[in-house]
Amino acid sequence: MSGTVREQLLARAGDPGAGLLFEDAAWTWDEVVHASAVRAAVLAELLPHDGPPHVGLLLDNVPEFAFLLGGAALSGQVVVGLNTTRRGAALAADVRRSDTRLVLTDATYAGLLEDLRLDVPVLRVDSHVWADLLARHADASLPQASVTADDLLMLIFTSGTSGEPKAVNVTHEKVAHPGRFLSERFGLGPGDVAYLSMPLFHSNAVMAGWGPALASGATVALARRFSASGFLPDVRRHGATYATYVGKPLTYVLATPERDDDAENPLRLVFGNEANERDIDDFARRFGCVVVDSYSSTENAVIVQRVPGMPPGSLGRPVEGVAVLDPETRAEVPVAEFGPDGRLLNAEAATGEIVNTTGAGAFAGYYRDPDAEAERMRGGMYWSGDLAYRDAAGFLYFAGRTADWLRVDGENLAAAPIERVLLRHPDVAEAAVYAVPDHVGDLVAAAVTVRRPLGADALATFLATQPDLSPQAWPRFLRVLDELPRTATNKVLKRRLTADGVADAVPVPHP
Description:
Elements: H1 5-10, E1 18-22, E2 25-28, H2 29-46, E3 54-57, H3 63-75, E4 78-81, H4 88-97, E5 102-105, E6 122-124, H5 128-136, E7 152-157, E8 167-171, H6 172-185, E9 193-196, H7 203-216, E10 219-222, H8 228-238, E11 242-246, H9 249-254, E12 269-273, H10 277-287, E13 290-293, E14 304-305, E15 317-318, E16 322-325, H11 347-350, E17 352-356, H12 370-376, E18 377-378, E19 381-390, E20 396-401, E21 405-408, E22 411-414, H13 415-422, E23 428-437, E24 442-450, H14 456-463, E25 477-480, H15 494-500, E26 506-507
Parallel strand pairs: 1-10, 3-4, 3-5, 4-7, 5-6, 9-10, 9-11, 11-12, 12-13, 24-25
Antiparallel strand pairs: 1-2, 7-8, 14-15, 16-17, 17-19, 18-19, 19-20, 21-22, 23-24, 25-26
Helix pairs in contact: 2-3, 6-7
GO cellular component, one term: plasma membrane
Pfam families: AMP-binding, AMP-binding_C
Protein name: AMP-binding protein
């Protein structure tokens, strides 16, 4: 069993099968491994020898990113995935806190770095200097390196939806293991093509896309960036049988004009997390594939498994050791109680934080951030920061982030169940529920994007027909936006919605 990504790459050396596709270019796996060895040699020349061998990549999903990631895996170097949506002092802080010793970028993002004091070299991979370096090391052999499963391969920043992003330690095992597991689970092999449109600086593309393709010998097809209109043409052009997503890409693809031949494509499986049930079903029907949505995070410390016949809206059933605990008492919360109309009767008591009570799981810590690690690892247990409740059969239901608590009329409410109600409306494409401060406690506000015009009166009429919506959970304000503020990995920035207030909102009639 391969415990490192280095071993998995070495297993692809000499493989004549298709390894990488990008636009109109193609490389065999053997060529990918050699290109990776060349980049390892270049980085060995460029990186200082007196500190951590960390190289920051400020790039889209271009072949250089894949080759540099492979080179780091072969040689024991570490890729720092720099978020291409970060700007100014925030981007510079990411470079500093990750001990990045060299930043590689290209014409697309070089301008973001021009006025920043980074105190490290910046080199463009589309420059003649880079081309000369590659030519000088063109005959590089596979590097000799001692790499273990616990060694760092990447630093991947969290999305930062509830604060400053944290650099997650991504070891070789954190990529090699899910690569093996997912490729076996989904039956991926050399005949498959994995389409990667999520950014390579994030865990989804690396752990759920690149890793399984590498482990199984499937082909990686890179999209420079995600494009809703370009998704299906890319799938057809590359013959993609497998694709990944995180957040709302399914919603965006479904918003493109439907055609009679949409299901005429090679796609058989789409895997990701945070899609809503309606989009999962609609996407599978429209494009003739299976969509598997899974609870996940970059830290990868909590496992909740989807099983056949699970209730609508459920995340699945947690593995042994995963529980829902009260953050204050650290006791397990009561089982959720539902009325005959489906309404959650004991929401405040039954909602708690998802916790790995056995320890850290696959969480390898945050880089140079002991305070953040201590916050995650309280009492020897991993606290996910995600809220949930569980039914009598043991199924978990996502209730939002710990920052998604709203205090309404003396009752704690979670945002996610209200969002699920809003998404039942046929005209609502996306929904984000957040708190608006009141004199005492909060009022519920909803920001939505819509398929067709939606007014406050029409929404109120719809909400009145939803038996499981409590009076306290009724949205008092409606904001219809062209798009919700999101991170680069499609997660909603609710703190920005809260900061924007409700000046552009309309009141929703309340019964």
